[in-house]
Structure formats: structure tokens, C-alpha cells
Amino acid sequence: MSWILIKLAWQNLFRHKRRSIIAATAMGIGLAALIFADALWLGMERNMVKTATASFLGDAQIHREGFSDEQAVELTINHLDAVVVNLQREGIVAHFTLRTFAFGMITSPATVAAVNLVGVEPSTEQYLSQIDDAIIEGAYFEGSNSRDIVMGEELAERLEVGLNDRIVVTVAQAGSGDLSQEMFRVSGIYRFADEGMNSGMAFIRLGKAQQMLALGTGAHEIALKFIDSTSAEDQNLLFWKTYWQGGNKARSWIEVLPEVQAMFEMSKFSKYIMGVVLFGVVVFGIVNTLFMSLYERMFEFGVLRAIGTRPFGMAQLILFEAGALAVLGIILGTVFGFCVTVIFSTIGIDYTGIEMMGITMQELIYPEMRIQPFIFYSIWIFVFTIIAGLYPARYAARMSAATAMRRSF
Fold it and tell me: Which of 152, 243, 311, 319 is the most buried (most CB within 10 A)?
């Protein structure tokens, strides 16, 4: 019986090929839009996380408790040597680097600017940030000159300095608060899409920064890169407990940038809402198609009722036609969605320079295709179409033979 209904449904569906294909295409475009939106958002998430973690943040950071809030120069990491030794033995850590931070002033012959002065170890910093890749003039700490300073393009313009120009850096030392001044030579200028890094940060060697800040061998931050970057998203790792003790705390990028993770969570709901709205519009088209098909075959339905076809059988026929329409729409949508996603996964989408949640896009966004949306949204399409078919199916089931025959003339 089911096989006969399936055969009838497909035959009836193609009595008016143009109408059926238009309705199925509308469903297919909706399905393709959802598949592509899912892939685009996943690619955007990966891009934003990569931009946030690879440009400077790292997958995780270790600080002394209170440093993130107060930015006090005295709050260096406790038991730094032991922490470093343990990190060297960690199997999940690919690279890590030490940093110091201090607010200071840079004086040029033309003007003065406030900056966040960062002390870095160039040999390890290259694995945790992209400053060396963003150099547009000069070099990123070549040689061993301890008086090299690297700064952003906007900061250099504000100070009216160029490559090899000399400037004076002033910072307050830890503990005493005494001012410490040193002369530096601009050895490199970088350009980041992030305006904050371009205009408000300058980098010097770690040893020089420790000396100016009177920190001894101390550091304010250890930035880490995991072998598998998804380790940062696993808050059950023993790693976090191991390094969140002794007055220090270890945080993943999710805790450092909670607004980004919150936005990712919200995006999941927004996708579902978009799907419901999209399918809600398509449902009216499906109902219209089924009713038009029903009205055009009133005589046929009248005959079926006259020879004893039960109301449930009439409803089944309409629902099987709705199912056939859904299958056709799913096939078209899967093909459309696959082709569009493959094309944009290859050529990418240019959002570079656009800032979202404090993260400035620096690379093309490449949508990432997954199998799950093809299955999940296809099931949605099928279920919505069957639900949409219930109304015309009920109408057909309640129709008497006399009514159908009368309306057919």
C-alpha cells in the first residue's frame, strides 16, 4: 500500500513539473541558505578565535592573581622558575613565552605619547604572536641590540618618528615607583588591523624591560600555545588546576575574552531562529502548491471517495505528495548548499579590517563544511513539509464524493 502511495505521489507531483520544481527550488534555496550560513558562521568562529589567539593573546595565559584587574607592575608570576620548568614538561603545550607589561611614556623630539610597553623574548614570542609577520619597515629584533624598540605604524606617526630614530622611554619601577628612563632606537614598525595594537603598544626585549621595571627575572604573563588549540576549550583539563594555584591563575582565551564565547553561544540560537523564520515563509508556498494540486484534481478525488476510499487514505495521498515534494526540495537544497559552500570555501570571503566584539578580522573567512547541517536541516525540511501538508490533507479527508464532484465542474 505504501509503495503504491509513493508511486502515486511522485506521478501527481510531476503532473505540473514547472509548479513542483518552483516550489521545490524555494525549499532548496532555504535549505542551501541554512547549510551555507552554518558553514560561514563556523568559518567565522575559527577565524575570530585564530585572530584573537594567534595575533597576540595565545591559547591561554598565566598571570599572578589580581594582575589582570590592576595591571600593577609588582604583580609578577609567583614561583616563575618552577612554573616554567613544569610547562616545559607539559605534553599539551607546544610553545610558551614570557612577557612584561607596563604603562609608560615615549618621548620623541616632536611629542610625547602614552603606551603599553611590552617586554618580549623574540625567540619564543614568534610562536605566540604575529608581530614579526606584520613588520612593514625595519626588522623584528634582529641582532642583540638591547635598545631596539618595535612599535605600531599609528604610534610612529603620532610620535613623528621613523626607522632608526631615537626616542626615550619612561616607566615607573616596581616597588619604589621610581622613574626609569632609557633611550631606544626604532628598529621596526608594524601594521596590524587592530587599532589598539597599532597605536598604543610598543615592544622591547624582555631583559631590558625587566631591568627598567626592576623586576629581576620576573614576568607578568606567560602566553601559551597548545599543540591542539581545542584544548583551550576543555575546562576539565588537569592543566588549569595545576597552574591555578600558588597565587597564580591560568585562563584560556575563553575566560580572557568571555564576550566572544558568549557571542558564539548566542549564534547557535540565532541560527535556529533564522531557520524557523525561513521555513515559516516556505511553508506557505508548500501549502499553496498542495492546495492547487488538490483543486485541480477534484474530480479524481470525488471518484476515489465514490469507490470507497477512506478519509485516512485521502489524507495519506496528500501527505505522501508533500513528502515527495520535500525529498525533491532536499535534493536540490543539498546540491545548491554543497556547491555554494565549496565555492566560497575555496575563494574565501573578505571581511578583513572589520571589527567584531573587539576582534579585527585579519584574514579571509573560509566557510567550513560539515556533514551535520546537511542531515539536521534536511530532517527539518522534511518534518516542516509534512506538518504543512496536514492542513490540505485534512481538507481532502473531510471532503465528500458529492462535494468533490460538484466542485470539479
Answer: 152
Distances (CA, A) of 67 to 247, 253, 346: 11, 16, 43
State how far the Cα of 75 lies from the Cα of 175, in Å rounded to an integer.
Answer: 10
Distance CA(130)–CA(254), nearest Å, equals 20
Q: Are strands 148-152 and 359-360 parallel, antiparallel or unpaired?
A: unpaired
Question: Residue 172: in which H helix or E strand, if any?
Answer: strand 166-172
pLDDT tens-place string over residues 338-377 = 999 999 999 988 877 666 666 667 778 899 989 998 998 8
Query: Which backbone phi and psi does 314 adopt, to 5 degrees?
Result: -60, -45
3-state helix, strand, coil in the chain (%, to 5): 55, 20, 25
User: What residues contact 337, with CB distance under 8 A and at least 6 apart?
Assistant: 31, 32, 33, 34, 35, 36, 373, 374
Q: Is 349 exposed, middle or buried (0-12, 13-18, 19+ CB in 10 A)?
A: middle
Q: What is the pTM of this model?
A: 0.70
Which residues sit opposite 106 in a β-bridge?
Answer: 113, 169
> What would the pLDDT profile of 109-167 be if each residue is shown by its tens digit?
889 999 999 999 999 998 888 888 889 999 888 888 889 999 999 999 999 999 999 99
